[in-house]
């Protein structure tokens, strides 16, 4: 006889074979918040954090660029000319940390909510979706789960992919890992002249998609695998 087990987290004990059981944790509802029609869609994590469901897209960033007459230095790649094929529903790339910081400052002022860039810990928590493997779907990268070089998708080595190409993770994030590295507020050196990125990008091997992996670069350096995810303060 299987007894009903009540846990503080309302987990369910599911019989999967004689003498074996699997602990199934309930997943959060997909509650989407969008502060304006062209603002990033936000999901609420189990700890109450509001994070963008996907990396900021080219279409979303284009509104910022148009309203602020945004320009980038003459050197380096450009968000509107990244050297790879992109559509409006692809994540914006060729973004430096300074560019990302300018975007969240503008977004905060535009909608009246406090937006910011995430920490490494926040991206890791959101990306794993409550799981404990190398990736939210398990220990092995498998095939066609994300966009990287060696992820077994049609986009391997070609460039970014639309943000809704791959399945959501258990916390309802799109592109939880892969496609673009995400800038974070974590400093890499004293004085914060360099900041850390996490999540892996389209031109990187599967091991870089593990959230234990971070890279860093100068705050003014753009690259066509660097993108943005945002956090919004709760009401």
Describe the structure in your own words.
This protein is of the alpha+beta class and 235 residues long. The protein has a single domain, classed as paralog of FGE (formylglycine-generating enzyme) (Alpha-Beta Complex). Helix content is 15%, strand content 18%. The chain contains 3 helices and 11 strands; from the N terminus they run βββββααβαβββββ. It has helices spanning 58-68, 97-111, 120-128, and strands spanning 12-17, 20-24, 32-33, 42-44, 50-52, 115-116, 181-187, 194-198, 214-218, 226-227, 231-232. A 5-stranded antiparallel β-sheet has the order 3-4-5-11-6. A 4-stranded mixed β-sheet has the order 9-8-7-10. A two-stranded antiparallel ribbon has the order 1-2. β1 (12-17) and β2 form a beta hairpin.
- Poorly predicted tracts of residues: 1-25
Question: What is the total number of structural domains?
Answer: 1
Distance between the termini: 46 Å
Residue-averaged pLDDT: 90
Q: Radius of gyration, Cα only, in angstroms?
A: 19 Å
CATH topology: paralog of FGE (formylglycine-generating enzyme)
Shape: globular
Strand order of the largest sheet: 3-4-5-11-6
In total, the number of strands is 11
Tell me the strand percentage band: 15-25%
The share of residues in helices is 10-25%
Structural class: alpha+beta
CATH architecture: Alpha-Beta Complex
Largest sheet: 5 strands, antiparallel
Spell out the helices and strands N to C: EEEEEHHEHEEEEE
CATH superfamily: paralog of FGE (formylglycine-generating enzyme)
């Amino acid at each position: 006889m299987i007894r009903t087990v009540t846990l503080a987290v309302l987990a369910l004990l599911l019989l999967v074979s004689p003498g074996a059981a699997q602990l199934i944790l309930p997943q959060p509802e997909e509650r989407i918040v969008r502060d304006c029609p062209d603002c990033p869609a936000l999901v609420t994590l189990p700890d109450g954090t509001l994070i963008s469901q996907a990396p900021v897209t080219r279409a979303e960033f284009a509104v910022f660029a148009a309203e602020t007459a945004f320009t980038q230095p003459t050197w380096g790649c450009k968000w509107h000319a990244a050297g790879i094929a992109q559509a409006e529903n692809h994540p914006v790339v060729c973004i430096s940390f300074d560019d990302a910081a300018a975007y969240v400052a503008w977004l905060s002022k535009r909608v009246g909510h406090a937006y910011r860039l995430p920490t490494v810990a926040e991206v890791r928590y959101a990306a794993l979706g409550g799981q404990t493997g190398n990736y939210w779907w398990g220990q092995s990268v498998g095939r066609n789960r994300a966009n990287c070089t060696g992820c077994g998708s049609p986009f391997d080595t070609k460039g970014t992919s639309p943000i809704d190409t791959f399945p959501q993770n258990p916390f309802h994030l799109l592109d939880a890992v892969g496609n673009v590295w995400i800038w974070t507020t974590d400093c890499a050196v004293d004085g914060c002249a360099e900041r850390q990125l996490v999540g892996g990008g389209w031109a990187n091997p599967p091991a870089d998609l593990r959230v234990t992996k971070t890279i860093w670069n100068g705050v003014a350096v753009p690259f066509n695998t660097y993108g943005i995810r945002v956090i919004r303060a709760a009401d």
